[in-house]
Amino acid sequence: MNAPLSPFRARDAQPGLPCPLDALDTPCLLLDEARMDGNIARLRTRLAGAGVAFRPHLKTAKSWEISRRLMASPHGPATVSTLREAEELAARGVTDITYAVGIAPQKLPRVLALRRQGVDLTVLLDSVAQARAVAAASDPADPIPALIELDCDGHRSGVQPGDSQLLLAIAHALKPAARLRGVLVHAGESYAARGEEALAAAAERERAAAVEAARTLRDAGWICPVVSVGSTPTAFSARSYEGVTEVRAGVFVFFDLVQAGIGICAVDDIAVSVLATVIGHQRDKGWAIVDAGWTALSCDRGTAGQAVDQGYGLVCDAAGRPLGDLVVRGVNQEHGVAAPRSGRPSDLPDLPVGTRLRILPSHACATVTQFDRYHVIGAGGEEVTAVWPRLMGW
Prior knowledge:
Elements: E1 19-20, E2 28-32, H1 33-50, E3 53-54, H2 64-70, E4 78-80, H3 83-91, E5 96-102, H4 108-116, E6 120-125, H5 128-137, E7 145-150, H6 164-173, E8 179-185, H7 196-219, E9 226-229, H8 232-235, E10 246-247, H9 257-262, E11 272-282, E12 287-290, H10 294-297, E13 314-316, E14 322-331, E15 336-340, E16 356-360, H11 364-368, E17 373-377, E18 383-389
Parallel strand pairs: 2-17, 3-10, 4-5, 5-6, 6-7, 7-8, 8-9, 9-10
Antiparallel strand pairs: 1-18, 2-11, 11-12, 11-16, 12-15, 13-14, 13-16, 14-15, 17-18
Helix pairs in contact: 5-6
């Protein structure tokens, strides 16, 4: 089951499948296909009902088998966070791609190579320096399209939506070789929102920021056809998409304990888990030691500031049922410490050496990136029915 896989290329033949979970080496990444399909359908239905386009973010999945389920057509649209993703998607015939990370000038030759292959690749920027680099690299016969990144909540990068001087300076710097395609915003601080009203308010700030900046550009004579918003919490919480042309979201495809803590999903919606094996005990401390450390679970502690701290992951039995309040409370490189939140040794369930456990991730994006493949489990969750390669690298 652990032979090398070619990136983004699902194997035509997968001998030995289906196979029971007991046949897998651990740690390994499990994907519940039915849960994933349900998550996709939930967001797609919501956005279709709102009459807004969906440009899925494929950074979490990084898998062709999953990407093709997310996109509206074999050609896109798609959002990526690495040019490696864009290149692999292009090899599969995807031609409508937004690269939603601020462009580094040194990467522009790869952007041009993709565009010469017929890919309508849009780049992201938030400074005059980036705009000038894009304009200098552009082929006048095929101007590179660019989106201006906005900062609606002080989360990370981007232009303040009310900074008309900078917005217009960036647009002007793209002339004449490159072209302005629109604006893009990501409400990163929505991950800190709690409750329906707070989430709706975060979504409205995101929408309003994008619409305000687009209006500023249009009033100055710039065509601004794309007004792009997106984060998983706001995608499920927005009450209006007026003025918005598309929504992006990524982690929703799997969900995770952070999203469950925010209230966007239930624990039962989480589609990925790490299969691990009990390899020892410290019974006086109430610990079970598993063979999944930070190299398998990541070091992400996204639930630490939430009402329920899930540690490095929520521990479930082999069927995916949570074992009370058992969590992974500590990690080393290849060791995980599973213990009750209570800290009482008497609360540790009976877990003999060799017991298989499934650990739900704190942050799915961070956990799945530790693995080069998904072991897909079908109905009932007792057998692996397929193995899907997962792309790695930049």
